[in-house]
Design brief:
The protein has one domain: Alpha/Beta hydrolase fold, catalytic domain (Rossmann fold), CATH 3.40.50.1820. The chain has 320 residues and is α/β, with parallel strands linked by helices. It has 9 helices and 8 strands. The longest helix is centred in the first third of the chain and has 19 residues, at 28-46. It has helices spanning 12-17, 28-46, 102-112, 131-145, 147-150, 164-178, 216-227, 266-278, 301-318; strands at residues 51-58, 67-74, 82-88, 115-119, 152-162, 186-190, 255-260, 283-288. This is Alpha/beta hydrolase fold-3 domain-containing protein.
């Protein structure tokens, strides 16, 4: 189905800038280079914000290498320990780095008066599940252990991520609940990747989702690389890899979920939001008409409005 007439006119330049590419092993190197370039440009722009950008390292262990962190904090002095926002970047689990959305992270740090910490977690296909989520959990625990040094309040931790990072955030919320780890005040999920079973076909799948930016072929490649050697759609996929697989969604933090109406992940995100509500979790859901994947990473009115709603939700999550 041709969904181009459904795209918001202000987002049409994004479709020209990001051509349709079905990702594969051959296409992956170029995809990674593209995101590395975008991350570099975003980081350069971030230096114009009144924030302090710092790169820290969690030392290697017997089971994991050094883990690099990007931290963003307001330049102004704090009168008390700040809340902390743990951010997990997108990129299909096989590309990207924390600097990819550095300007957004600067805005979060400013508007929320918080410290933002984003790990450069291990990527697929070199490091399949559970490498990324263990890196995310390591970061979360490191934050609580180093709260005094970081000048943060370990009782006020929020969680956010977009796309693969949104799925990783949802998986981390499940994991830390089940491990009785640090308490999270909220999870702020932006078009999150949640369900590997979408790769096997959905009889009632939206006919208008996934034509642009992130296609079904790219999605299948992503899940295959993440779950290797387990086959996407099989019975033994972990809910920490595919949060939609979790049967118990109770006792998860309040959730804000945003997704475009033309995004491939619309169906799984709506289903997850409904299940959270049914299991007693507070949910705020934003469906953006005429929006495709990564719509918020544009300089457009629709992106500005959506990011403002996202920040407002996080403010309320932090009790601001």
């Amino acid at each position: 189905m041709n969904t181009r007439p459904l795209v918001l006119p202000e987002l049409l330049p994004l479709l020209e800038e990001v051509p349709i590419v079905d990702l594969s092993p051959d296409a992956l190197p170029a995809f990674r280079r593209g995101l590395e370039y975008a991350a570099g440009q975003s980081f350069l722009q971030a230096e114009d914000y009144p924030v302090i950008l710092e790169r820290l390292t969690i030392p290697a262990t017997d089971t994991a290498p050094d883990l690099r962190l990007l931290t963003v904090r307001p330049r102004k002095d704090a009168t008390s320990p700040r809340p902390v926002l743990l951010h997990l970047h997108g990129g299909g689990y096989f590309a990207g780095q924390p600097e990819l959305t550095a300007t957004q992270l600067c805005q979060f740090a400013q508007d929320l008066d918080c410290v933002v910490i984003s790990p450069d977690y291990r990527l697929t296909p070199e490091h399949p599940f559970p490498a990324a989520i263990e890196d995310a959990y390591t970061t979360l625990c490191w934050i609580t252990r180093n709260a005094d040094t970081l000048g943060i309040d370990a009782s006020r931790i929020g969680l956010t991520g977009e796309s693969a990072g949104g799925g990783l955030a949802a998986g981390l919320a499940l994991l830390t609940r089940d491990r009785e780890g640090p308490t999270l005040l909220f999870q702020n999920l932006v078009y999150p990747v949640l369900d590997d079973r979408t790769t096997t076909g959905q009889p009632d799948a939206s006919p208008v989702g996934g034509e642009f930016i992130w296609t079904r072929a790219s999605n299948t490649f992503m899940w295959t690389a993440l779950l290797n050697p387990i086959t996407p759609g099989s019975a033994d996929v972990s809910p920490y890899a595919a949060p939609a697989r979790a049967t118990d969604l109770s006792d998860l933090p309040p959730t804000y979920l945003s997704v475009g109406a033309l995004d491939l992940f619309l169906d799984e995100d709506l289903a997850y939001a409904q299940r959270l509500i049914h299991q007693g979790v507070s949910v705020e859901l934003e469906i953006v008409p005429g929006a495709c994947h990564i719509f918020d990473q544009t300089d457009t009115p629709v992106a500005t409005r959506s990011i403002a709603r996202r920040i407002d939700a996080m403010k309320r999550g932090f009790g601001l």
